[in-house]
Structure formats: C-alpha cells, structure tokens
C-alpha cells in the first residue's frame, strides 16, 4: 500500500466514531499495539525534543524501505506515533519525504498539530522525515 | 459611555462591600467574564490558577479606560495626559506599598514580573560575591529562582548549596541551620512552592540568615494571591511578586528591596528614565526607584496591578484564604478516594494546590483527557525539575484552586480524573 492509501484507510477507520472519546479510546488501543523499539535504542540521542512525554524513535533500512519503531511513556502520545508510523513505515524514503500529513486533521486530531502543543507531534513528523532524508542520501 | 462606566464601578463597589462579610462565590464569578466560556463544548473549569489567575471585569475596565482615555508616556511629559498617566502609575506604587506594608514607596521597583526581579538582584550581587562565598537555595524552587543564581555562581565562583526537603514537601530546617555559616552571603527561597503548595516558614528562614549577616530574597509569586505578606514585619531584604498570579495582567510585577540594598546594587539595565545626567564621558544615575526602571515601563500593567490589589482587598485575603482552605480540604479528600492516586506535597501548611499522579499513567495523558472535558490543569515538571527528580517522577498533574472556584468544579475534576483513569489504564 502507498502512504496515501494507508492514510485513507486510517481516515476511514476514524470516521466510524461519533465523538472524541471513541477516537481517543481507539488511539489508546493503537498506542498499545505500537511496534516497540528495541530497548537498546531508547537512548538520549533517540529522544525527540519538544515533547512533554518522552518519545524514542528508531529507523532502519530494510532493502529500499525504511522501518520505524518507537515508544513513549505516555499512552496518547504513543497512539499518535502509532498512527504516524503506520503511514510511514515500510515505505521508500523518497515517498516519506514527499508525503503530507493532512490526514491528521481529517481524523479529528488537528489540535495536536499546533507547533506549540507540548506533545511535539510536529517534532515527531519532522524527525521521521529527517530519518528519510538521511537514508535517501545514503541510497543515492 | 462614560456614565455607564461610572455606574458599573459604583455598582461593583457596592457589591464588594457586601462581600466583606462572607464569600459569595456565585457573585464573585460574575466578575470574571472568561469563566462563562466553553472549552471543547463544555463549561470551562479553570484549575490552572498557579500558572496564571483570571482577570476580573474591574481590572479589564481599568485597562480599557487607560487606553481609551489617558494613554501617554510617563514622568517626562508636560502635557495633561502624561501627568494623568504618571499620577495613576505612582498611585499604583502607593497601593502596592500599602498592601505589602512597605516602609518607603521607592523601595518598590516595577519589573516585568518575578523572573525579571530575581535576575535584577542576582545580577547586582555579581560585584559583592567572591570565590568561595556560599549562597543557599531551597530544594523546592521554581527554575526562575535557581538559574539566575547558578549564573551568578558561575560568574563569581560562589558555591550554590541546597536546603533539603522531606518527602512531605517541607524544608528541613535543621539542615538549613547547619548550612548557614560565615561564608553564607545570600539565601533565596519561595514563600510558597509552585509545584507542591507548601507554605515555607520564611520568618524563621529570614531571622536565621540575618543572625549570620546573610541577605534573603523571598520569591512571593505563589504566595501573593493567597497571603498578604507584611514585608516590614518580615524584615526581608528582597521580595518578588508577579501581578498576573493575583488577578492582574501579565508582564508586570514588583521587586521590593530594602533601601540600603537598592542603593548599593548597581543598575541592571541602562537607558532612559534611570539617569540623572548623561554626557559621553560619564553618566550619573537617577534616585530610587528610577535607577532600576530604565525605559518606558508597562504603564497600563502597573496601573492594572494596583486595580487588582484593590479588587482582592475588597474581597479580603482572610475570607479568600479561609474559602480556599475549604476547597483544598474537599479536593484532597475527594481525590484521595481514587484508587492509585498519589498526592505530592502534603505539608501541614499549604495553599490550594494539589499535585498528583495515578499509578501507571503519565500525567500528560490525564491532562489531555481533562482538557477534552473542559478542565484546565497543568501537567509536567512545573518548571521545578529538581522536585520531580527528588520524587523520581517525570512530572505531575497540578490542580490549583482560586477563590472563584467552587466545590462543584472539584466534583467535575474528580469525575474527569476517574474517567481519564478508566480510559487510560
């Protein structure tokens, strides 16, 4: 599936919910199913700055695709990362660089997109894209 | 327009007189337009008062009146508006003087807030400290009462020592006494802890420091909304306050300093207003308080600060403190009923602040769910990381209550926390 197709699928899933509580409950469930980062990658270097909770992200190239794993000490933050990683993981770096993240708005999590929000969703997206840029350079 | 304005003021005055005898919270709430708004479709429950308090209409009116009728630069003008603005600004200084029982009005320096005030003093002490001198800080300080002193220590070679605290969140006074020596030059401590609500025994702290000849700065930012400090009786050297914590606007506060200290400290910032005479060869400085008030100050803010003090005094600090204690006791009791909830800061003497966590849940998650329910609390380290390190936690959820909060709001908070818990665990 392409990034766009995955994002459409996520938007579809979220459209089933009537209110914020169901959306958050689903997000918490997604958080619990996040592909966990290997403990050895939970280092200071892998912490994303700008989050009130701790967020670690690790990226690895498998063939020509980038695989992300992550963790956070806060479950809602974990849910947000799970959504992001689901759309970006197992994709080619160039596609990650080109992808947009408007679907976050469509699933009713717009409030988390503010750059001043303490959860640092914006920093997370930036970090995932930075990994993609770094690996793309390597592939070139 | 003018007539309506006057009517409103006199009506409010009448209201406030009535309030002197008992705290009529429902009437008081009508003074705060923001309390009527909805957040995420629900009525706002504002419990982040320790971060900033809300502003009553009486103070908003003063701000509007300033910009509508007499906005002008102060102290230098020959025209009527400038004179009016100067009079009101200086009148505000007098109100602050009276409120905090300060001997001389020029011992009050208008600052942008507590942080500015502390930096002003820390900067001034650069020339008084030498290598090996000691300065003492309490273990429960806000970063703004730690970092400026660390910078001072770096500049001068002075040593920063920490007065420890107990698990209850009380300062260990025996350890404090042991730390004091003839090397101690300065002690700084908050009157009330922002993260825990502990009311510190500042009179004892001041007296003990004075016995060995050290100066004391008390950060009053969190105390001022709840306790009317008598600075003359305290005999403190410096005391700092931010207006926005006590129904005033942001960007204004005060530094109280004893006259002899303020005369000795060098100016903090150079500029207009703070000079007596300037030539390219030499500048002489103005007298107090202008020596420390370079540039055009927050004129409207200063005047509104005075109005905020009028407002709070009309209600009465004693009635407010009594009512807030009731809220604190009720909230402590109700929150403690929640399984797995732990309160940090259980000092015998505390203001209406409750810092807590629920086992197995990150404070940020609780704060996010509460926000969806229209409840404003603070989460995180509250700019007091050493306290969080002490308890070995990433942060807390902090609910801080003001005299305009109600028991019904405490109930909504408790229900919200329970709901968050069932969603998150």
TrEMBL record, chain A:
Assigned protein family: Belongs to the SufE family.
InterPro entries: Fe-S_metab-assoc_dom (IPR003808)
Domain Fe-S metabolism associated: 11-129
Protein name: SufE family protein
Pfam family, one: SufE
């Amino acid at each position: 599936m392409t990034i766009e197709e995955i994002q459409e699928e996520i938007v579809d899933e979220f459209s089933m919910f009537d209110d914020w509580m169901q959306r958050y409950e689903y997000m918490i469930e997604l958080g619990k199913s996040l592909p966990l980062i290997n403990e050895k990658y939970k280092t200071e270097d892998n912490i994303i700055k700008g989050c009130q909770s701790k967020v670690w992200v690790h990226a690895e190239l498998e063939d020509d695709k980038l695989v992300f794993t992550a963790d956070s000490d806060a479950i809602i933050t974990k849910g947000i990362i799970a959504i992001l990683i689901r759309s970006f993981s197992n994709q080619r770096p160039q596609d990650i660089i080109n992808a947009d993240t408007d679907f976050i708005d469509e699933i009713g999590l717009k409030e988390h997109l503010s750059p001043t929000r303490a959860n640092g969703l914006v920093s997370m997206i930036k970090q995932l894209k930075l990994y993609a840029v770094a690996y793309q350079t390597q592939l070139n | 327009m003018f007539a309506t304005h006057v009517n409103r003021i006199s009506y409010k005055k009448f209201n406030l007189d009535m309030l002197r005898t008992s705290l009529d919270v429902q009437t008081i709430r009508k003074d705060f337009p923001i309390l009527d708004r909805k957040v995420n479709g629900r009525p706002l429950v504002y419990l982040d008062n320790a971060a900033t308090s809300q502003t009553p209409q009486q103070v908003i009116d003063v701000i509007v009146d300033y910009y509508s009728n007499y906005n002008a630069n102060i102290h230098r003008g020959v025209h009527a508006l400038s004179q009016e603005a100067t009079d009101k600004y200086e009148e505000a200084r007098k109100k602050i003087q009276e409120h905090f029982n300060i001997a001389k009005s020029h011992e009050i320096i208008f600052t942008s807030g507590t942080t500015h005030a502390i930096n002003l003093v820390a900067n001034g002490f650069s020339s008084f400290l030498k290598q090996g001198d000691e300065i003492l800080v309490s273990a429960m300080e806000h970063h703004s009462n730690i970092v400026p002193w660390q910078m001072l220590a770096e500049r001068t070679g002075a040593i920063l020592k920490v007065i420890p605290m107990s698990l209850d969140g009380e300062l260990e006074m025996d350890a404090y006494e042991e730390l004091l020596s003839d090397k101690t030059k300065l002690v700084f401590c908050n009157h009330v802890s922002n993260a825990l609500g502990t009311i510190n025994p500042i009179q004892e702290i001041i007296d003990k420091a004075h016995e060995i000849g050290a100066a004391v700065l008390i950060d009053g930012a969190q105390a001022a909304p709840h306790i009317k400090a008598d600075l003359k009786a305290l005999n403190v050297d410096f005391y700092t306050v931010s207006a926005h914590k006590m129904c005033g606007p942001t960007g204004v506060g005060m530094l109280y300093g004893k006259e002899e200290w303020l005369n000795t400290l060098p100016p903090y910032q150079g500029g207009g207003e703070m000079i007596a005479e300037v030539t390219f060869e030499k500048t002489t400085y103005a007298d107090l308080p202008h020596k420390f008030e370079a540039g055009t100050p927050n004129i409207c803010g200063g005047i509104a600060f005075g109005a905020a003090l009028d407002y709070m005094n009309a209600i009465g600090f004693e009635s407010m403190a009594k009512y807030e204690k009731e809220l604190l006791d009720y909230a402590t009791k109700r929150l403690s009923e929640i399984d797995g909830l732990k309160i940090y800061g259980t000092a015998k003497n505390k203001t209406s602040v409750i810092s807590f966590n629920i086992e197995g849940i990150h404070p940020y998650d609780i704060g996010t769910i509460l926000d969806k329910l229209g409840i404003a609390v603070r989460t995180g380290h509250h700019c007091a990381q050493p306290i969080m390190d002490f308890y070995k936690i990433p942060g807390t959820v902090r609910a801080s209550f003001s005299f305009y909060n109600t028991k019904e709001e405490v109930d909504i908070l408790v229900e919200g926390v329970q709901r968050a818990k069932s969603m998150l665990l």
